[in-house]
Write a structure and sequence with these properties.
Length: about 375
């Protein structure tokens, strides 16, 4: 078979499973990838990712410049890329998405301010920089509430639930006495997310809202399209993500996570956070959409025409946390698509995911029930 002609090279900061899936999604287009990652055995360089690699820390200036100069464009697979690194790349080459979106997503307070400036509803919150300010904020926001570190929080880390205001000092100590925000606890109906990709020329492809189920702060299950979503709610989500994409003059894929409060046309969507990259709640798009979030992201950053984000049916994505399925269990699920990232199993670690696809909601439910019974 003739190999596709190389039409572009993308540098990716980070060599985890997202870089792996970004690279594999566009190999058929002739797009090559180079990752910058300090781990010489990162996921993106294995048989699935097949990326070239620059082994260096994310703040290594010479390595960042080398990446920028050796690729047509640089992107990133996680939010905690040092801001000065993104700025350095912008001075020596092209980088997408806009580093301003990256820096905003790295600070919960800046993120909430952005939502408010764009008229996107958010949960009640307050800035917390000291124990005294936490005590005052609890009077304002109330309890229960959640104290969240402003930076470096993910998968439920960097968060403390405060049920009793008298436990403020204990919560402040547990968090590490770092700058934070206090979020009012939301009795939400469910958690939703929307993923969209914007091209360099401003065209946007919207994936349908997905419903997400978390346990222990970690995503366990995503269903897409989300069930019983009123058209007005879908429009609210699209309007919100469109405002954010246009605000940053964004090119690439972006996810927005919401709390849905209430049901029907009057249901409220409260924005929780953004992810300026491909996102776990969009992994279903590999098999479940005409063009995956990964391929569309790469098309966008290279200035190519986007593919359709239309779903091909109904999908469920199950994260594999800690361990692979029992030996032989997947043989009884021939229609399941299993993705293993090449990571060593350990508690709380995402080592892969499984996608189930069906033409109808009822058939997908039957597959999920069978999956739970067989695989556990």
């Amino acid at each position: 078979m003739t190999k596709p002609r190389t039409i572009g090279t993308v540098g990716i900061i980070g060599g985890g499973q997202l870089a792996q899936m970004l690279a594999s999604s566009v190999r058929h287009l002739g797009i090559k990838c180079t990752v910058l990652d300090p781990n010489p055995d990162c996921c993106a360089t294995n048989d699935l990712g097949q990326c070239d690699q620059i082994v260096a820390d994310y703040d290594d200036e010479q390595a960042l410049i080398k990446l920028a100069k050796s690729c047509d464009v640089v992107t990133y697979e996680f939010e905690n890329v040092p801001g000065q690194g993104a700025a350095l790349i912008a001075g020596h080459g092209s980088i997408h998405p806009n580093p301003a979106a990256l820096s905003t997503s790295q600070d919960r307070l800046s993120e909430r301010a952005m939502f408010k400036d764009l008229g996107i509803p958010v949960p009640p919150f307050a800035q917390v920089d000291s124990l005294d300010q936490l005590i005052q904020s609890l009077e304002q926001v109330g309890a229960p509430s959640i104290l969240k570190a402003r930076t470096l929080g993910y998968d439920g880390k960097g968060q403390v639930l405060i049920s009793d205001p008298t436990k403020a000092a204990q919560a402040w100590d547990t968090l590490g006495k770092v700058p934070a925000i206090l979020d009012g606890f939301i009795e939400f109906t469910r958690e939703l997310s929307i993923i969209a990709t914007r091209s360099v020329d401003g065209h946007i492809e919207y994936y349908p809202l997905s419903e997400n189920i978390h346990r222990g702060g970690i995503l366990r299950l995503t269903k897409a399209p989300a069930r019983q979503v009123h058209k007005a709610v879908e429009e609210k989500a699209r309007d919100s993500v469109k405002k954010i994409l246009e605000h940053f003059e964004y090119a690439g894929t972006l996810a927005v996570e919401f709390f849905q409060v209430g049901q029907g046309a009057d249901a409220k969507l409260l924005a929780n956070e953004i992810a300026p990259r491909v996102h776990n709640t969009g992994h279903w798009t590999i098999e479940g959409a005409k063009t995956s979030q990964f391929e569309n992201h790469m098309r966008a950053v290279l200035g190519m025409e986007l593919g359709s984000a239309e779903p091909t049916g109904h999908s469920a994505m199950i994260n594999l946390i800690g361990n692979e399925p029992r030996a032989g269990s997947m043989e009884a699920m021939p229609n399941a698509n299993i993705h293993l990232y090449g990571k060593e199993p350990r508690p709380g670690r995402k080592i892969g995911h499984i996608t189930l696809n069906a033409p109808s909601e009822s058939e997908l439910d039957a597959m999920l029930e069978r999956f739970t019974r067989i695989v556990g």
